Amino acid sequence: MERFADTGVELSDYATHFVVECPRCHGKALVTPTQRLQCTSCHHSEEKGRWYGYATAYLSVKCRECHEQIRETYVWKNGSKSVHSVCKNCGDSTHYDASIMRHPMHEGRMTDSVFGLPLWLQDTYRDHHFWAFNYEHLEALNSYIQAGLRERGIEPRNTIKKNSAMFSRLPAFMTKGSNRKDIVRMVDDLMRK
Ligand SMILES: [Zn+2]
Ligand SMILES: [Zn+2]
Q1: 84 Cα: distance to centroid of ligand 1 (angstroms)
Q2: Do 42 and 74 lie in a common domain?
Q3: Which of 72, 102, 132 is where one domain is finished?
Q4: Strands 149-150 vs 3-4: parallel, antiparallel or unpaired
Q5: Given CB 3.0 to 4.6 Å as the disulfide criterion, which of 76, 92, 112, 180 pairs with 55?
Q6: Residues 125 and 144 in one domain
């Protein structure tokens, strides 16, 4: 049996760089720690700026004329935060600044937080979504899944805060014994991707 020692690492510790799908050629691209996109296939490269993922602009203001509450949500496509709104009460038409919310999922796939591009290392198992930010993250998940014995909580001097550690929050399907063979195979395929 392999043993696995949970070091209390958090998910955000792995979110320093990402392997994603290139927006130009759909090949493998990297989002570097300096937040630059670099494709390994077509050599497309760009600085942080454009958001390729799903985002919404949420507006919650009082009409500048009649003070009626205005609440609207729009699909946001880059550019300005300013949205056009017509008051349903008095008909006043103007632009307001909305709050932009970038969503982690786009068209059913998990995306990176810099460009909103689909993560390269993802797959589904039955109805479950499995993904990793990068190969280091995948490797860590793999060690965890492979381990027959998990040590978290066994050592009395183990001081990991239960809810902050990534591994204690992994979905059950990943660690369920009967799924392990399939999950291991899926992770193996992703490692070679
Ligand atoms: Zn490319
Ligand atoms: Zn109004």
Answers
A1: 35
A2: no
A3: 102
A4: parallel
A5: 76
A6: yes
Residue 141 C-alpha to ligand 1 middle, in angstroms? 27
- Say if residue 120 is in the same domain as residue 171: yes
Ligand nearest to the CA of 92: 2
Ligand 2 centroid to Cα of residue 66, in Å, is: 4
179-188 pLDDT, tens digit per residue, is 878 888 999 9
Tens-place pLDDT, residues 78-101: 889 999 999 999 999 999 999 999
In this predicted structure, what is the pLDDT of residue 57?
95
Residue after which a domain boundary falls, among 102, 121, 139: 102
- What total number of domains does the chain contain? 2
Residues spanned by the domain of 75:
55-102
Q: What is the pLDDT of residues 25-45, one digit of tens each?
A: 999 999 999 999 999 999 999
Residue 98 CA to ligand 2 center (angstroms) comes to 17
Burial of 165 (0-12, 13-18, 19+ CB in 10 A): middle
- Model pTM above 0.90: no
- Token readout for 113 is 């937080």
